[in-house]
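Chain particulars:
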Amino acid sequence: MKKSWKKAIGAFTASALALSVSMTSFAFYQEPQSKKGILISGQDSEHLNDISNLGCKQVVCNLASYQNVNSFDPLASKCKAEGITLTMILLNGFGASDSRLLPVDSPVEGVGNYAFNTATAEGEAAVRNYARNVASHYAYSVSNWVIGNEVNDAAAWDYSGVTDIDEHAAQYAKAFRIFYEEIKKANPDARVFIPFDMRWNARGADPALYTVKEYLPKLNELLKDTDYGIAWHAYPVHFFTKPEFLDDDGISFDLDTPNINLKNMNVLTDYMQNADMLSPGGQVRHLLLTEQGFTSACENGEERQAEAIRAAYEIVQANPYIEGFYLCRQVDAASQEAVGGAFGLWTRDPGAGRDEIPLAKKKAWSVYQSLN
């Protein structure tokens, strides 16, 4: 009897160890083959094939809370099959699948994005359930996760109705930690990022439009025990009127600069090397440039856009702390085009019946294809 018991214990231990090793081997991260990336405009065959034709080794997409969790399965399958690093941005919008995800009782269509609701126990439970579902579904296809959009702009892109910076930071930090925990449970190798716009020290009239210089340290105090990364939006200062950024006015190379973009990106990467900003392991935190666009809607626009992209990518290649560069976007979007943001590498087909259907390649397409 004792021998049988010992055999059973031994078999159980061996099985547990095997399972442990097996579970560890399931951890997934697709190391990028280059920094070149794109924000995909759709999942038709022409959109998906274009990623490969461009030679992009990284792709970013936006999954909103009103979409089905499996909405990006075609893209995820392609990326997994071809060794492309997939980054997914999680957004919370009007019409969310679970109304408890929203931080207000009467959501309004047209608000840029809502914050994820952590103000109530019900909201927190809904956020955790959503995070668990999304994280488990894409556990072995998504390498990088971005929680929200430009969270320092609580006036539009992380709207919760809260204007006090400390209260807003606390609410975002709580939501981020929920996603971080569920993502890491599903895939311990995944990386999780906090998104910011380029307004480092530029103040707006709205009190809920915080500068990154004041907001980031508050989040760092709340989340420094996590291995969070930074997702930066490095737009030119006048991004709706011209593509050039190297001549941006008002940009400086110190911490008093109003904006940090590709002209002075070293200001951010130098700052992130400060001891207090390092990860729990003592490393400089991961940095992705998840959104920047260079318009062609100006005089000689296609040539100027192409040259701006070339110059931007050269800066990215020279900076060892930048891990990914995602152009916004693959195809011109009607909403952005209406205000001057013709950021696509393709013009859009206005007669296609839906937005962001490619019509013709711009000069920037060939230039971006040529970059490694």
The beta strands are 36-39, 58-64, 85-91, 144-147, 191-196, 229-233, 287-292, 324-327, 346-348, 358-361. Confidence is low (pLDDT under 50) at residues 1-25.
